[in-house]
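Chain A, query sequence.
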Amino acid sequence: MQYSIGVEYALHCLLYLINPPTGSNIGIKELAKFQGVSETYLSKIFTKLTKAEIVSSIPGAKGGYQLTKRPEDISFWDVVEAIEGSKPIFQCKNIRKNCFLYQDTGYPECLAKIPCKINVVMLEAEEHMRNYLKEKNLLWLMQDLEGILPEKFFVETKDFFNKS
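Chain A, predicted structure.
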């Protein structure tokens, strides 16, 4: 199981939208430069974030992107779902029907009525992960990072976006 790097870029970029420079918004060009990724790639990510109503696009000279919700209302799961979609990670193909024992007689109806236990466990595990990611939000992440990263990082980040 692996989420695309788009989830990571999205979460990082969304952090910078929490407190944008006064009087302006942050654009793709600035975010791409700051993150060291192509504008085209980041535009695709922000298209998905816009479609999921996590961000909105602001046109004009001081345009860019802004969060559509408060940071505490944007969970990690919201971002994962926006970038990756809502399709379950595990896709049960019901291969138990291919068992050698049933080649001649066919798959018994009594077994067909019982859900595949492997599928049940995998979907439950995904549900636990989904619930955990729903508990973590952008505000939590920002507050956690403020306790870890030096103040200099935040000052230099703000300066970068103010000059852009």
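The first helix runs from residue 5 to 16. The beta strands are 55-58, 64-67.
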